[in-house]
C-alpha cells in the first residue's frame, strides 16, 4: 500500500514559507485550503493514506501564537477534517483511502531538532503525559488510525504505545534511525520489539531516514516482530541549518523501492523532499510488483 510523501515538501512547493515553530501546522490557522490541496495532490498521485498536518502541532505551540486550549483543539481536529475533505474530493474513482493522524515526537513539539537526538531527560511515564492532551484531541476527530512517527527513542515509543493500548485505537509506529540504531542509539531489535507487546500497533517501521537505511530496518523488523512493516524515508539529501537549504542529490531511487517491496514492506511512502511525482512513481512500481 502506498502512503503519501512529505506534506511540508508539497506545501513549500506551493510557495509557503514554513520556517515557523509550528512548521506545516501553521497553515491549519493561516491557509487550511492549501493543506487540503496538498493532501489531494498526493491522493491523485496514487497515495492511499494521508498523514495529517499535526506532526508539529501542540497546545504549547498554539499558546505561543495566542491561542487557548479550545482553539488548539479545533485546529488539531481540523487537521483530520482537511485530510478527510481531500479524500472526499477524489473519491469518484472508488478506491479506498485512509486518514492517519500524525503524532510527532516530543522533540517536534520543542521545535529545536531534538527529535533527531531523543533522550530528552524524561522517562516513559512523563512522556506519556506530555503526549496525552494532543493524543486525545486527535482521537476525538476519529481518524482511521494514528501515525506515531519520527520517534527517536524506545522510551518514547513505549509511552505512545501505552496511550494506544489505553485507547484501543489502531496506530503505526515508525522510528527515525541512523544505520542500524534509533537516533538515540538503541538497537533496532529492541525498538521493534515494542510492537510485540502492543496489539493495537498495526504496523512498525522507519521514516525520515536515509533511503539506504530502509532495507536493513525491514530485515530487523521482520526478525523482531510479525507486525506489518511501514517505511517512508526522506530523499537522502542533507539539510544545512546555517544556510537553511537542502544539499546534495536525492537517493530516492526506483531500484530501492523494488528492494523494499521484495524485502517485505507493506506500506511505502516518503518523507521530507519526497513529493507527489515520487509518490506517483511508487504507485507505478507497486502496481507492477507481484
From TrEMBL:
GO terms for biological process: methionine biosynthetic process; methylation; S-methylmethionine cycle. Its cofactor is Zn(2+). Pfam families: S-methyl_trans (PF02574). Zn(2+) binds at residues 208, 271-272. Residues 1-286 form the Hcy-binding domain. Binds 1 zinc ion per subunit. Its EC number is 2.1.1.10. One of its GO terms (molecular function) is zinc ion binding. InterPro entries: BHMT-like, HCY_dom, HCY_dom_sf, Hcy_S-methyltransferase. Keywords: Metal-binding, Methyltransferase, Transferase, Zinc. It comes from the Bacteria. This is Homocysteine S-methyltransferase. The lineage of its organism: Bacteria, Bacillati, Actinomycetota, Actinomycetes, Mycobacteriales. The gene is mmuM.
Amino acid at each position: 500500500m502506498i502512503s503519501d510523501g512529505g506534506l511540508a515538501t508539497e506545501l513549500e512547493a506551493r510557495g509557503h514559507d514554513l520556517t515557523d515553530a509550528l512548521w506545516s501546522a501553521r497553515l491549519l490557522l493561516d491557509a487550511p485550503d492549501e493543506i487540503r490541496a496538498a493532501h489531494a495532490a498526493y491522493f491523485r498521485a496514487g497515495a492511499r493514506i494521508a498523514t495529517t498536518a499535526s506532526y508539529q502541532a501542540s497546545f504549547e505551540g498554539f499558546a505561543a501564537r495566542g491561542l487557548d486550549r479550545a482553539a488548539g483543539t479545533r485546529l488539531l481536529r481540523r487537521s483530520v477534517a482537511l485530510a478527510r475533505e481531500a479524500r472526499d474530493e477524489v473519491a469518484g474513482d472508488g478506491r479506498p483511502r485512509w486518514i492517519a493522524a500524525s503524532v510527532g515526537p516530543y522533540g517536534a513539539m520543542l521545535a529545536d531538532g531534538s527529535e533527531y537526538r531523543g533522550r530528552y531527560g524524561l522517562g516513559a511515564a512523563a512522556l506519556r503525559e506530555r503526549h496525552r492532551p494532543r493524543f486525545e484531541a486527535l482521537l476525538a476527530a476519529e481518524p482511521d488510525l494514528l501515525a506515531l512517527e519520527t520517534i527517536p527513542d524506545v522510551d518514547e515509543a513505549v509511552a505512545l504505545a501505552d496511550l494506544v493500548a489505553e485507547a484501543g485505537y489502531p496506530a503505526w509506529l515508525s522510528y527515525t534511525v541512523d544505520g542500524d540504531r534509533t537516533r538515540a542509539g538503541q538497537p533496532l531489535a529492541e525498538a521493534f520489539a515494542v510492537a510485540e507487546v502492543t496489539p493495537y500497533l498495526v504496523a512498525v517501521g522507519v521514516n525520515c531516514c536515509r533511503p539506504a537505511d530502509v532495507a536493513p530496518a525491514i530485515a530487523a523488523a521482520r526478525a523482531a516482530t510479525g507486525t506489518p512493516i511501514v517505511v517512508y524515508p526522506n530523499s537522502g539529501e542533507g539539510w544545512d541549518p546555517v544556510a537553511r537549504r537542502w544539499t546534495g542529490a536525492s537517493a530516492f531511487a526506483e531500484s530501492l523501492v523494488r528492494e523494499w517491496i521484495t524485502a517485505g514492506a507493506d506500506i511505502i511512502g516518503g518523507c521530507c523532499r519526497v513529493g507527489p511525482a515520487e509518490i506517483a512513481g511508487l504507485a507505478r512500481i507497486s502496481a507492477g510488483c507481484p
